[in-house]
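Now for one specimen:
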Amino acid sequence: MVYLLDWAVAILTILYAGILLAYRYWFGKMRLFQLNQIEQVRPEQAVTHFTVIIPARNEAANIKACVESILAQDYPSAAFEIIVIDDFSEDDTAFIVQALSQQFPQVRLLQLKDHCKEGETLAYKKKAIEIAVSVAKGDWILTTDADCIVPTRWLLLYNAYIQEQQPSFVAAPVMFIKTAGMLNQFQLLDFLALQGITAAAVGAGKHSMSNGANLGFEKAAFIAVGGYQGVDHIASGDDMFLMHKMKQTLHKPVGYLFHPDAIVLTAAMDTWKGFIMQRIRWASKARYYDDRSITVVLTLVYLFNLSFLLLALLGSWSTLIIALAFKTFFELFFLEPVAKFFKMKPELRFFACYQPIHIVYNIAAGLFGQLKTYSWKGRKVK
């Protein structure tokens, strides 16, 4: 039994290393998007009119800073609007946005409760985005989350990228805000890997991966593919499922805005319970993926992590240590250029220390994401 497991782990290690080498190669081929030295867009140059959509639930502590970061853009104010759609908040989120809308005419507040009753849907965020898109004035929709801060050249970069590449959908980088503590440090490293894989895979045209905190799509393309029709029964996945639909249906490119000034910052979870629930929520959509390349990779990664648990239970410590050393080496090899892009290289010195936590959480999140009801912002979701 142990002999067979050792051989299985050896094969999984080789396959895992091969995947990481592929991601490293694809990431290395990416080139920073060039702005052609345009520092500021004058009103007559603002070809793209944007609607920025922010779904918000119980975000009174964050929504003002998020909206103000968008209002501070190096982009003509007449060329963008901000729609915050309140998702049955139980705090002052709507009140704060209403006050901002009275001060800034490009800010609008919508209430999800005016369009549906609580309990009518599992996919509240998708419903909120669909409602906001239906009244959006912009030709292009950008989405971000209420706990995010966007950089000042965010719209300028999107505008230039859209004009040059003519895409239907654009994914872009996201990173957690760095704070003190082991939990934050672990999340930074874990999310760094996810963001690196997203950039590499989308840049190479391999997977449909994106993050709703920083993405954009053409309004006409959203309508053409029927919005979230067909995936509107799934609680999460407002980002990747839409991206995959557009990639499969439309004859326009799907791109990645690879530029450090396009990085949107978002808050990491402040408790281990919140972190696990977030990852279970992310993992819960895996069984619905139509992109088989993602399914194959996720299955391999899960089996590889699970093999460490089996090795420990059977006492095959030498194989476990060797496999762990290979895992750490190839993950660091992949992460080195990713960390450089996100200016996170100093964090890598702690990477090896978190390997046991990383393995256990991957096993738990993958399992409970398929089996367990989870809680998110006060709601029970299956």
